[in-house]
Design brief:
Elements lengths: L1 H14 L7 H29 L13 H12 L18 H9 L2 H6 L17 H12 L6
Helix pairs in contact: 3-6
The structure holds heme C.
Length: 146
């Protein structure tokens, strides 16, 4: 009986160095944590920067009819607003036609989805904030033919 107990104790003692409290396993993990700390601090600084990226540039100054407004309308609107298909009795194929809806407020009304205007483009995604800002700027300048 005492022989068995001695054997058990031996076995337990033999397993001891493998427990999580074993100095042999504990010290390397402490070194690992200490070693990673500066890396974590650095990562956090990087995270902060990436979570607050500079606002995406939206150039609302270099806006012209020919280079900015017309290409956008061609791409998003003219399929429904041309001389053959004049949806809502509006064509947006020429400067004069665009100028008419720009100066009476309808152009900005429809693209900003303002109350009282049909939301444009029909069946498509709303223009981006930047695209809207650029058209708005052009209209505020007096919708010039530039
Ligand atoms: C899929 C077809 C379609 C597309 C694309 C489309 N429209 Fe229209 N648009 C219409 C229809 C249909 C009407 C008439 C809606 C109504 O009167 O309720 C209309 C009406 C209008 C009107 C007249 C609104 C009024 O109150 O008189 C303007 C201005 C206009 N659209 C501008 C645009 C602009 C700008 C775009 C692009 C951003 C665009 N549309 C894209 C179909 C379209």
């Amino acid at each position: 009986m005492s022989q068995l107990r001695a054997l058990t104790r031996q076995k337990v003692a033999g397993r001891m160095p493998l427990t999580p409290y074993s100095p042999r396993l504990w010290w390397p993990s402490l070194l690992l944590v200490v070693g990673l700390l500066p890396a974590c601090t650095y990562d956090n600084a990087e995270d902060l920067l990436s979570k607050n990226p500079p606002a995406p540039a939206c150039d609302t100054v270099a806006v012209t009819f020919s280079a900015s407004v017309a290409p956008l309308l061609q791409q998003r609107c003219v399929s429904c607003h041309n001389t053959t298909l004049r949806s809502g009795d509006v064509s947006l194929s020429t400067y004069t036609q665009v100028q008419r809806v720009a100066t009476d407020g309808r152009l900005v009304g429809v693209i900003t989805h303002a109350p009282g205007y049909p939301a444009m483009p029909v069946g498509g995604t709303k223009l981006s904030d930047c695209e809207i800002a650029r058209i708005r700027y052009w209209v505020r300048q007096g919708a010039p033919n530039n």
